[in-house]
Amino acid sequence: MTESYFSFDHVSFRYIDGTEALKDISLSIPKGKKVAILGENGSGKSTFFKLLIGLEKPTSGEIRFLSEPLNYKKKQLIHLREQVGFIFQEAENQLFASTVKQDILYGPINLKWSHEKIERHVANAIQLTELYDLTERPIHFLSGGQKKRVTIAGVYAMDPKIYILDEPTSSLDFYFSNQLTTYLNELQNEERTFLYSTHQVNLIYEWAEYFIVFHKGQILYAGQRDALFSDDKLLETAHIEKPWLVQCYENMLKEGLIQVQTTLPRSMKELMRLLKNNSYY
Hints:
The chain is of the alpha/beta class. 38% of the residues lie in helices and 22% in strands. The longest helix is centred in the middle third of the chain and has 14 residues, at 115-128. The two termini are 39 Å apart.
């Protein structure tokens, strides 16, 4: 693990109705990594995100941000949320301006940047998310996918260090679902961290560098790709689909078409290279 943005030390959370959403969670969120958050509905992922941005406080345990205990005073929470961008599953939960550009402008204006810096960041966000033909369009005239792209642009324009994406491809079509990972790859650097919650394992398999699996409010797994997707029992317990690329690889092994590799293939290109290097191809 590299240096951490967040660390959880024996954190539990119980809702007012008695529901124990998280149970004794201890883990770190590294800097500069693309992290996939997996788990069935109700496993604790959304509660985990709420704790990260201070919308909820732990019932017990401690959360640290940049090695300091999370502070829940208003000023400190504002500072935290300037560095942590949250893209909600439902776009309507974070869109409130009258037009696309006004909504994207809202965050940077509140950061009190210079006019030039605001315009530069907003222009980059509009270009990244391909919204240039929609900037003056009223929000309520947009499709679900267009609204989601506006929320992504609004977060990107604020230049956070951490991106939290809660089921970000819901309402996005095939093209923009795939484009989203392209956007994130363009944004990645050694300081930015991405936390991407999804049920679309095939979409996230190649992109993510680190995987965290929630199950019944606990961390079932935290680590690299290969150990997770080679563990059939763990995948079955967590109700996680094995990526089709891994299934293809395992079937080719059974048929003797390829030899066992030290690491799983990350992409179709890698899998095809294995075939081409095999005398049976």
